[in-house]
Write a structure and sequence with these properties.
single chain, about 375 residues, alpha/beta, Rossmann fold, 2 domains, 6-stranded parallel β-sheet, globular
Amino acid sequence: MKILTIIGTRPEVIKMAPILTLLKTNKGFESYVCLTSQHKDLLTDPLKFFEIKADFDLEIMLPDQNLFNISVGILSKIELVIRQLKPDLILVQGDTTSAFIGALSGFYSKIRIGHVEAGLRTNYKESPYPEEINRQLISRIADIHFAPTLRSKQNLLDENIAENTIFVTGNTIIDALNFAMDKIYSSEYQRNTSINFDLPEKLKINLSDATKKIIVVTAHRRENFLNTITNLCKALRELSKRQDVIIVFLVHPNPNINDLINKELENHEHILLIKPMDYLPFVYLMKSCYFIMTDSGGLQEEAAALGKPVLVFRTVTERQESIIAGSSKLIGLDPKSIIDSANELLDNEDIYKSMAQIRLHYGDGNAAKKIVKIISQL
């Protein structure tokens, strides 16, 4: 079976890596990878770490690109790849624009589509934007739906997706996370050097300070631009006045976010603004931190498996499993809510311990094996 996997963003690389590794070593498949590269600089590290070789690269990245540029860029270039390769199945992952346009291209070419991480829903079309609509549209196009949880499967059934096309597999992010953790704690890494050597120097110093609680912060959602990011920065400035915290803010390279965050937070004591980290040291940072504040969906999954509480500055989330289990909490983007929620975790040990438990509601680390087995049977 000839399989084409279409990847556009860093999370897609990480989440598809366990599947691609198995496809590469299985003699029953010819596996090909096509990068769209709208986030080209962020793909280099995970591709190298997971030893993924791209067979095609659309190279659509433009300065200050928007959703129109990305959609048109992929759609205009992917046709040649599909015509040349003639795959039996196209795999897309998640809810990115590259995944949606990749699925649409397969539909136009009358090729079956497999959707990894299918069925996540907030049912608010502009939250997250454009991801909620992307994943709903992919579900109308896809032929095979790999749902990470029973809740995701039920979401698809509620939309009249045929049950015999839905398979509950767990999320491949847990497979990738386990692979990274094995690397971190392997004898080779322990013998040669600490994983710290890949961390920024300032971060090394603060991770070694037992008196400080590390708070990891990320923000990248399009709906959180401008005013809402300003609110977040206001809250972080207030939290940074505490003497027992270090706030590590991984600033997304998108200039709409990057410039504003640097203007609001640079040169503030107890706040470190750093570029997005390579995957392995970032996993180490997550494992070492006290808790995480984010608008990311994937981090809610990884943090649950690591036993790290997550404060989600959104009003809705498609990862309801984490909210129900108590490993994540929706706090919105009101500065007071952010400050109060963070202080509660920092000051109330009982509440912290109730959230800081390892929970495997996103899978046991065998999602890729299940997906590849299902594909081979189909």
